[in-house]
Design brief:
This protein is of the alpha+beta class. The chain has a domain of 55 residues. The chain is 50% helix and 14% strand. The chain is built from 4 helices and 2 strands; from the N terminus they run H-H-H-E-E-H. A hairpin with a 5-residue loop joins strand 1 and strand 2. The longest helix is centred in the N-terminal third of the chain and has 40 residues. The chain is elongated, with a radius of gyration of 29 Å.
């Protein structure tokens, strides 16, 4: 390998040093440009998804217990942190109800603070007559 580099690459580098330096610089600029485009694209997608979440009333962060239950003492500590603007708990349970035809239908029950949820998460507001599948 070293003999091939010494025989073929070294004479070219010695005879045309500016051409080799320009080629290396062009490759470095190309990699930097591709990385910059990637960063700009990721930033734009992140801002767009944040705007969609804000319009839909979705939370920026959701905290859920690993086993389904979360210790109630955690909520006041999180809500009082300086970096948390607004926090509200949502209790979620699954269950069954009887349909009009007498069959069991799976339902999802959400418990929210009705005075806070309308301004923060309109998607969690009760909607009568709409079935979510």
């Amino acid at each position: 390998m070293w003999s091939l580099l010494r025989v073929h690459a070294w004479p070219e580098l010695r005879h045309h040093p500016w051409r080799s330096a320009t080629a290396v610089l062009a490759v470095m600029l190309g990699v930097a440009l591709a990385f910059a485009v990637h960063l700009i694209n990721a930033s734009a997608l992140d801002e767009f998804s944040g705007a969609v979440r804000a319009v839909n009333g979705q939370a920026d962060l959701s905290l859920q217990g690993a086993s389904g239950a979360l210790d109630e003492s955690i909520y006041p500590r999180l809500a009082l942190r300086e970096d948390v603007a607004v926090a509200h708990p949502v209790l979620e349970r699954s269950g069954y109800a009887l349909g009009a035809d007498g069959r069991r239908v799976a339902i999802r029950i959400l418990g929210v603070d009705a005075l806070v949820v309308a301004g923060l998460s309109p998607a969690l507001m009760p909607q009568i007559g709409r079935a979510h599948v």
